[in-house]
Amino acid sequence: MKIAVVAANGKAGSKIVDEAIARGHEVTAIVRGENRSHAPEAIITDILDITAEQISGFDALIDAFGAYAEDQLPLHDASAQHLADLSAATGVHFYVVGGAGSLFVDPEHTTQLLDTDAFPAEFRPLADAQRKQLANLRGRTDATWTFVSPAIEFLADGEKTGSYEIAGEELSFNEDGKSQVSYADFASAIVHLAEDGGHVRERVSVRW
Q1: Residue 152's pLDDT is what?
Q2: In this structure, which of 10, 35, 49, 62 has its CB flanked by the most CB atoms within 10 Å?
């Protein structure tokens, strides 16, 4: 496959690049500045300036963009809508590295994790921005997208176990009662999803 990874220099993006290369795919990094990932090819541009011509011919476009400063939080939704526009124009399958805050905590899907008292207040602005990102993607029937939420504990330096579970929209726990996944195993999961090509216009989650 030909896979492009947006924000390939980041912790999640670089892991995704490495996983895709290890599986034998042709990988291109899309970064704002110098390509510091292991991708052999790079497109140097701002995320909002990516063009349909640049991604034409790719099988998957994986968006690992993340902003944490308050004034940059709206970029989650703005960039997702821009990339959805490109998906609609080119047919590329667009995957978003989302957050856990928008996972539902009830089978009726009326309450999301970030709306519970247990959710840390300091992470709520980011989670809310990612919830809006997902909500607006749900209205895009013209684009081919998949939103992928990690577990509650998203472990940047966690080990690669080679084991993970792709679950649905509800918050779930492993047999030890934990919701965890490492960046490395999440990268394995998202590349697997890209290879499979399913879950079109759906949100899924990944945990150990």
Answers
A1: 97
A2: 62
